[in-house]
Amino acid sequence: MNELVVNLEKTVCDIADALVDIDTSRIAFRNYKPGVGPFGEPQLLRRIAEILDSKDIYRGKVRTRRTPDFIINDSWVMEFKIIRPFGDNGSEAENWSVNLLHPYEGNVSALVIVENYL
Description:
The protein is an alpha+beta fold. 31% of the residues lie in helices and 12% in strands. A hairpin with a 3-residue loop joins strand 2 (70-72) and strand 3 (76-79).
């Protein structure tokens, strides 16, 4: 394991701050309204990784993958789920809560974090 281990609370706060940065940048994803909402999971995670990588504590230590979504500093492995109760047009998305709780057979939680995965 690397000498520099980032604690979970700081990592989660930094990811939340990155989401706010992306949202307030008013950059649109494709032809949708500006903000974080319309981004697909891979595109959003790539943007978060870029922001984290700009900080010394994470520089060169954030990797995105298909499974798991994020590996940070060889200390944290994270899987993300995007929750979208409403579409870009303001209408309610069908089955969003079902997909959050049970997106696929065998899934038992909405947040999965595994320490010392690598």
